[in-house]
Design goal:
alpha/beta, Rossmann fold, five-stranded parallel beta sheet, five-stranded mixed beta sheet, 17 helices, about 45% helix, about 15% strand
Length: about 600
Amino acid sequence: MRLVWAAAVITLMIANSGAANAPKRVIFLHSYDQNLKPWSEYAKALRRELDLQSQWPLVIEDFSVVTGRVDDNENAELKFAGYLSALFSNQSPDLIITFGGPAAVFVQRHRRELFPTTPVLMTAVDQRRVEEMALTENDTVVAVRQNIPALFRNILQVLPGTKMIAVVMGNSPNERFWIGEMKSELEPLKDRLELLFLNELSFEDILKRAATLPPNSAIFWSQPQVDAIGAVHEGETSLKRLYQDANAPIFSYDDSFFDGEIVGGPMTSAANNARTATVAAIRILAGESPKDVKTKLLEYGPAKYDWRLLQRWGISESRLPPGSEIHFRERAAWELYRWQIASVGFVILLQASLISGLVFERRRRLHAEVQARQRSAELAHINRYSIAGELTAMIAHEINQPLGAILANAETAELIFKTPTPNLREIREILADIRRDDERAGNVIRRLRSLLNRAPFELKNIDLNEVVRETMQFLSALAMAREVDLVSLSTPSPLPIKGDRIQLQQVILNLIVNAMDAMSDMPSAERRIMVSSARDGEIAELAVSDVGPGIPDEKLKEVFNPFFTTKPQDMGMGLSIARTIVETHGGQLSAENRPGRGAMFRIRLPVAALSN
């Protein structure tokens, strides 16, 4: 007898062990497409929690209620219910879990023919979508209750100037139910707020309307599952499109969409819903009667807001409800990189003293450069006086000629006036000659004054060819006196540069006078100076060449040094000053020997556009 009892106990233990390890079959019944937000988030969260907490292997299968997207069709519903009943005729599921209002309504409507004894857990559903009187002992609900007035009062609190709220929602039967609820519960706000329902538009028309809302508007987003033309929309994609086009802030109630487009407010949570629903599901799968599994009505958690959108729409944090959570706030650089900033600050402080010292030295150097430039300008002025001294004979000759002609013409006019019948035509010609000679003398004096002028250095847009012509005209008398053939070969088009006319004239004059001095011992018939200009891309080039003895090769690098000279009575500053002037203009002055005989000095200056 003991052997029989032992065998019975062992058999019962094996059976219980097998029952404990047998897989549980669960059906997820979705109101809409199971891959669309927010339902996909609820399903994923619940599946994840079940996998973590279930002591049995689970076989979960997903189905979508086909009538959730269209108007009620009794025949279609019956066929779908029959399909599910036939599919599980051999083995009923251990638990049916519905997501959303349409799925809950479908199950309650067809409870008798659709697994009447199978436990049903209704979740992610508002309390108003569940018929309490139709619940059986095999049904339980994890319900929420959307507080519609609280959602809209939140908008008015954070944006008190709001005059219109556009409600973006679809046109399926379930969504039309909620539009009716909104209109009813928001009736007390009708005097303060205009509600614009866009459910009778296609989604493309909704986008156009959202882009042209009047000022002081806001948008309440409730995922449009099916629009007015029957098109189904994925929640995340459609929300992003609305965000890109809308000219007003967007609010919603489901944190599944809280990811950069929703300003915020009170919200339901897929994670919280899943945790509560999982506890109820585990209890039912463990054998507890669904009617005994009671859960509290799920409410909104603390309101949460997107800091980035608060900034975009200028919403002050002081307007947010007490206890609100602010997400996506950009952390201050000090919080993110405290040690890095401290290290960099230490290095900066360490370098500050060095930089201060360098700045002080730089200021001293700049001061020295300014003084050197002033001394250079004074030397250039002295050099011009020296050249003017060399030109004294030429200047006297240039002035004496027009003065002598003026005197002769005046004496002639006096004699004509003494005649009985003065010839007025001759007198007019004599007066014209006097005026011409006077202008000639005046030009000589002006050129001399410009040479000796101690005006400040000033860069202006000038034509290099014109500077060359003026300088050669000034030196023409000296060239004749020294019996030098002075030849100019300029480009036909202007050579625009930015420079100081007087200083550049001094450079050219120095080079030409030096060339005359270099050929002083040569026969007069061979004395020739060529002044040529050309353009090389963005460079204006001027060359002064002679046919003298040239420069010794070992002296080519020294000719621009201060006090270097081959003339017994010269200071040796002319070429040094000339190079300083050219470099101040951003150019280069170089010397070379010509093939055969003679020297050439080449000036290169950057081209500039002449101002109008």
